[in-house]
Amino acid sequence: MEAINNFFIENSNVKRINKIENIEVPGKIIYEVLRIINGKPLFLENHLLRMENSFKLINIDYCLDNLKIRRDIEELVRVNDKFEGNIKLTYNINEKIMRIFFIKHSYPSEEMYQNGVKTILYFGERDNPNAKIVNLSFREKVNIKIKESNAYEAILVDRNGYITEGSKSNIFMIKDNILLTSPVKAVLPGVTRSEIIELAIENGIKVQEINLKYSDIKNLDGMFISGTSPKILPINKVDSIKINSNEIINKLIKYYNNRIISYIKSN
Question: Which DSSP string do the residues of 22-71 spell out, in sequence order?
Fold first, then answer.
């Protein structure tokens, strides 16, 4: 079972976590992972919009109450007395059960932000990249490769040789001072990804969605991972290809951290 701490929320009811019992029953599960900072769910509105979109992509009416979800998250934070970490929202379509619980998290170290991290290429793609639906077999296969390679993340490459996204993140690239990322139709439209694109445009950085072949990685000026846990994390290596640090990435890290501070203060 993924849930940690003492309590989780099930259909707005507080329940104690039984270490033996698996709270996830079989069925198609739509989910979101959010970061809690100072007891506040970061960019909650955007996560719920994406959850609603996942429902639409599998032709199911969105039946959740967003205000109730916010209150449930506040209650989860209160009863567990935990004000930092990651939480997971899951909705089991078969059982019509909404669960919210804390999960284990791993945030990059300061050294990783300064020096970058190693990544690998993984040749494979999700069935429905736009929808955030549990796919354990795909995730397990990728995680095995990541562990074998002692890497931080795997960059997915589709059947046509194009870079799509990370196994649990989005991927950005820099070339000639332009911020590049894969077309939104080919990836899970990450909440952090959207914030980064918005921040780049606001600060005069040109953004382009592009299909980039993995064979062109060697010609890039920089690359980074984006996501709920890593935020903006520079990449220093893809397989055996070394990736340079880049000033645009450093600027985006500063802009994004400031955006987080502003959001938490205003919510």
Answer: ----SS-EEEEEEEEETTEETTHHHHHHHHHHHHHHTT------HHHHHH
Q: Which residue has the tokens 């739509």?
A: 30
- pLDDT for residue 185: 83
Cα-only R_g, the chain: 19
Model confidence over 250-259: pLDDT tens digits?
999 999 999 9
Alpha helices in 81-213 (DSSP H): 110-115, 136-148, 191-202
Same domain, yes or no: 120 and 155: yes
Instruction: State the pTM of this model.
Output: 0.90
Q: Is the pLDDT of residue 124 over 60?
A: yes
The answer to whether the CB of 133 falls within 8 A of the CB of 54 is yes
Do 259 and 132 form a contact (C-beta atoms < 8 A)?
no
Q: What is the mean pLDDT of the chain?
A: 91
pLDDT for 31-65, tens place per residue? 999 999 999 999 999 999 999 998 998 899 899 99
In CATH, what number is assigned to the domain containing residue 199?
3.20.10.10
Q: How far is CA 178 from CA 44, 133, 149, 222, 238, in A?
A: 29, 32, 30, 10, 20
Which residues make Cβ contacts (< 8 Å) with residue 254, sequence separation at least 6? none
For residues 163 and 157, the answer to whether their CB atoms sit within 8 Å is yes
Residue 265 and residue 86: Cα distance in Å, rounded? 19
Structure tokens at 70: 């916010």
pLDDT digits (tens, 9 = 90+) for 196-228: 999 999 999 999 999 999 999 999 999 999 999
Token pair in block for residue 84: 């930092």
Q: Report the amino acid identity of residue 181.
A: T
Decide which of 56, 83, 103 is a domain's last residue. Answer: 103
